[in-house]
Specification:
The complex is a heterodimer of chains A (about 450) and B (about 210). With about 450 residues, chain A is α/β, with parallel strands linked by helices. Chain A is about 30% helix and about 25% strand. Chain A is globular. By secondary structure, chain B is α/β, with parallel strands linked by helices. The chains are: A alpha/beta (about 450), B alpha/beta (about 210).
Amino acid sequence: MDEEFDVIVLGTGLTECILSGLLSVEGKKVLHIDKQDFYGGESASLNLSQVYSKFRPSGQKPELAGRDRDWCIDLIPKFLMSNGELTNILVHTDVTRYIEFKQIGGSYVYRNGRIAKVPANEMEAVRSSLMGIFEKRRMKGFLEFIAKYDEDDKSTHQGLDLDNNTMNEVYNYFRLENGTKDFIGHAMALWPNDDYLNEPAKPTYERIILYVQSVAKYGKSPYIYPLYGLGELPQGFARLSAIYGGTYMLGTPIDEILYDEKKNFAGVITKEGKAKAPIVIADPTYFPERVKKTGQKVIRAMCILDHPVANTSDLDSLQLIIPQNQVGRKHDIYVAVVSDVHCVVPKGYYLAIVSTIIETETPHVELEPAFKLLGSRVDTLMGIAELYEPQDDGTSSGIFISKSYDSTSHFESMTDDVKDLYFRVTGKPLVLKKRPSDQEEDDALNGL
Amino acid sequence: MSFPNPAKAVKLVLLGEAAVGKSSLVLRFVSNDFQENKEPTIGAAFLTQKCTIGDKTIKYEIWDTAGQERFASLAPMYYRNAQAALVVYDITKPASFLKARHWVKELHEQASKDITIALVGNKYDLVEDENDGDTLRKVSVEEGQKLAEDEGLLFFETSAKTSYNVNEVFVGIGTKIPESSAPTGVQQAGNEAGRIDLTTGAASTTQQTSGCC
């Protein structure tokens, strides 16, 4: 091909595809390559045979209904917060045009041996089975404080300073019990461990606000999910990039990475020839020598069920969080359940993906508390992923590397990485604005 | 007094080798005053056009490949719930006809079973003046017809340039599309409840807008 580009993107994971789309829309000439022959990289949704060949290449596959492509199994289990930053990016880029979304039916938390719905407002708190009558009153007071808190109006602060007081101090001010702290911190603020307790309360306040506003948006839960699985997200942003002139090459391994005399990135050689660019954005697998381990490993178990999860009113989808404290761990266990209404499994099946950060030498045993709640499983496929991050910010070499997808249950940390990469690559902060007018789109089409 | 039937949305995808005239065919169809209720473009590679056939109105949502076919990198999303496809080749380029066979095969594998496919030999304007010599034509009408018959496709030769036969392609598809075929993926999903429109922030019910699906 022997062509020059502004940016080469390696890997079609969600982070890479969003950046590819944003940069193409801005007029950058983008070449986007994936060594694998499907979109999505680590954040793909795979069909049944792809999943079994990845996780159990030589093993048994149970008798399952439906065609191969009736199954879209996410490799990374996450939901979108309906008021979160990824939703924002989807709306501002109009990628919503290619993807349909559904609500997740409910958000649950494990406490004292059983599961209960997470209350998202004062009304639900009053009805919740999670708390006794006096604790409900205290929780109501806490939620009212959060809702009314106005940074500029001291009279709403109740003497607390969210930038200085720790979250534990705020909890104690409202005399909340430990179990209540657990579900506020882990099921609403969605912290994966208890480190936040001794840090300033502000980030936790912001996370609770995000949760509450996300629930308020559509009602049942704070989460939304794309039909046909999360793998639609990278495809949608890849399409955006292509419409604005991005070139796509899948199933194309990188034969050689080219550097200039200053050892900065200069291009790549593939079976299609040489492609040059001063900048590359890549997932960690393309530059193993330039990334480091974060020290965390995530175990993810895809569980195929033929029944809804017990004690959830037979919901078609839900998130279930098992806070660390409740099962004597340091990290929460997350369970994401989706079903045929999301077009990811044939009718009658449910897909539950269980994940957590590994703490012992027998990680599969760590997931037992979740398996117990799920009941009988048709099959379970497990994988362990080491998490990586770049060694440097890439500005000196022109090599910008994304982070691995972490164990959090939503996309907020992924969008932080997108914004951070965008800033490092372009030197300016990402400002989301509406896409160009129809006329400009006409011009873009005429140029095809 | 009777009200017109609501327009039935049909996702139509374009396939074919680069430079056979896929985008031109669509532009010819969309920008022609074929029907008075013409809708404007809402986005590159995602054009809509209404088409009235007898007493039914079809609203085509036309997906261009946006160049992703160049290195065989079309996403599954592209075929997803497509109810119609145009497989386009250039009648002066035999290689593009070979590629068309490939795309027909790909559609049978990837797309839904009841998809309506039209095989379209484009650039008829280049050969229409040649009487018996037909020097530029490299793919005969018979070859096209044979492939269409074998695979159960509609068949047309067109010219996006002169507009010859272009509307006929879309009317032909509209006539052949099964009445019962689902308007979008939504109905195939079997359950419409809980779907949401992110752009308005409204918790959805049933209404579909042309923009978001």
